[in-house]
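Hi R.,

Here's the chain you asked about this morning:
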Amino acid sequence: MSLKQRLDLSGRTALITGGSRGWGCRSPRAWAKWARASCCRRARAMSSKRPVPGLARRAWTPAGSPPTAHWTRCSAPGRQAIERLGHVDILVNNAGATWGAPAEDHPVEAWDKVMNLNIRGVFLLTQAIGKASMIPRQYGRIVNVASIAGLLGNPPELMHTIAYNTSKGALVNFTRALACEWGHHNITVNALAPGFFPSKMTKGVLAQFGAEALARFAPLKRIGDEEDLKGAALLFASDAGRHITGQVLAVDGGVSVY
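And the predicted structure, written out as tokens:
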């Protein structure tokens, strides 16, 4: 089989969370070229300001989940995904939240919000999809979108995001632990760890410091853009990466090697 054939996702079904903004909003354009993609939005985002041609009818918001409870009831979206799609071959856990505050002043309710979405929600949805679809079919590709914030701390002059860093660190080890547990089901579990990318989460830091100043932290002297995650995501989701599991790939221009 050629490399091109191994990278081909034709006939596969992908479920992407966090589809109302950021990379989750833009990535279905790429996934639509590779696989049948469904984009799971967060409950409070009923529609995207930038609709995806050909995917609008497949983008959906799980019913019956108010904004504050959506990710604590994540097994229901898992069941709804199976009902709508029939099965899920590829799960991209992309949804995430952050909160900026010094550790000594970080609100507990904000800590809980970040942890519920970034960790509890990922666990519940992954568990539901694994149990209902991937394990019975003995096939699955899980791609968790972590962050280099889960691998190291932040320069204090840039940001204070202790809950976000902690949650992404937990997601890194969730990836490794689940890869060990589900490997015998022919399910791979890997994580992308993006560096600094323009998004709603990062626009405040970008506005304060500017892209050029932030690029100085990277050996490649640039910040990421939406094209930079596609190749790594395709590798993890396809049969080209079938012998890769439990790995965390930093896509950060080299920031994490300093």
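The mean pLDDT is 81.

Let me know if you need anything else.
M.
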